[in-house]
Amino acid sequence: MNDTTKEQIGQWKQINEDLSSIVSFEKFNDTFDKTVCLFDTLGDNAMRQPIINIIGNKNYILCADFFLATIQTLKSITACCKLGNFSDANVLTRKFRDDLFQYLYIMAATDNIKGLTKEELAQYFNNGMTEEGFLNAVADLYSILASGIRKESRDKGIDAWFDNTLNNSCSKEYRYNFFKTSAYIEFINKNTLVKFCFDAYLKEQWEALSRRQNNFTHSNGRNFLSANTISIWDKKRAIAMLDQVMDDISLTTAFFLSVLILIKPSYISSSDYVDCLDCGLEPTEGSQYWVAPIVQDYIDEFVTKIHSGLKTYLTKNNPYGMEIK
């Protein structure tokens, strides 16, 4: 092997081991860091407000699991981009989207499981109830949830997900009907605030993002396949692909954050109120409505890019009156 060949092989290995040797990752890393910081904050709030699913004598608690897993997916996307494997990066970006909206779906569906009726609640929980009556009411509620007698097919599908039986042959119906992104969107849109938001502000860019990610996932054309084999000298295309992945990460996160604010706005709260309580101090009046700085920054930088009216809509319509500036 002559010296020229050795030099070419060495250069090829260096570039393909880390594309950052020829392409700047500064903007990409900045978006990555901001997104990870956002998920850290949301995960902290999720720890205080866990999703609880009761299946017979089993109790499942879902806290920050999705956020921790999503951060790891972002790291995998970054690794693929640095290797120049942009088809793989785009497939993972679709997984990133699907996982986040599966979380919203599970959250919304779990909140929607039928427990005691209004009449039953009025019967058990009233101003004059005794301590024994309260404990009996709680026991009745738990018994109803544990028995599953009021759970619909969707609820049983959620049970299968929590119980790790969704992949079983007997759960095929649940997988087909309830565990796909279109089903997530359909169910989440039963919330009238979310549906208006989706139709008025998110739908157009959501559909464009879905088409782009489907093309890479299913290799709908030679161009989408070759994105995994970009020439080491095609710096222009590499930069364009990197920028697109970066934009799709921030766009997907902005979609997720917008819907989250309308479903569970307490997840975007700052820690000031809880920190005061933990320290035995009197919280500042109204501080329970303050928004975490990283969330406010993400809204200002990325959510506003989706539509000029989206931030105003979220400010005026989030159910808890969180003070989005």
What do you see in this structure?
By secondary structure, the chain is mainly α. It folds into 2 domains: 3-113 and 151-317, no CATH class; 115-150, no CATH class. Helices cover 68% and strands 3% of the residues. It has helices at 3-17, 26-48, 65-83, 86-111, 118-124, 131-147, 153-162, 172-178, 181-188, 192-217, 222-226, 235-263, 272-278, 293-306, 310-317, and strands spanning 51-55, 58-62. The protein has a two-stranded antiparallel sheet with strand order 1-2. Strand 1 (51-55) and strand 2 (58-62) form a beta hairpin.
In a nutshell, what does this entry contain?
The chain has 325 residues and is mainly alpha-helical. It contains 15 helices and two strands.
Q: What's the structural blueprint in terms of helices and strands?
A:
Blueprint lengths: L2 H15 L8 H23 L2 E5 L2 E5 L2 H19 L2 H26 L6 H7 L6 H17 L5 H10 L9 H7 L2 H8 L3 H26 L4 H5 L8 H29 L8 H7 L14 H14 L3 H8 L8
Antiparallel strand pairs: 1-2
Helix pairs in contact: 2-3, 2-12, 3-4, 4-9, 4-10, 4-12, 7-8, 10-12, 12-14
DSSP strand tally: 2
**Approximate strand percentage:** under 5%
Read across the widest sheet, the strand sequence of neighbours is 1-2
Task: Name the shape in a single word.
Answer: globular
Short key terms for the protein model shown above:
325 residues, globular, mainly alpha, two-stranded antiparallel sheet, 2 strands, 15 helices
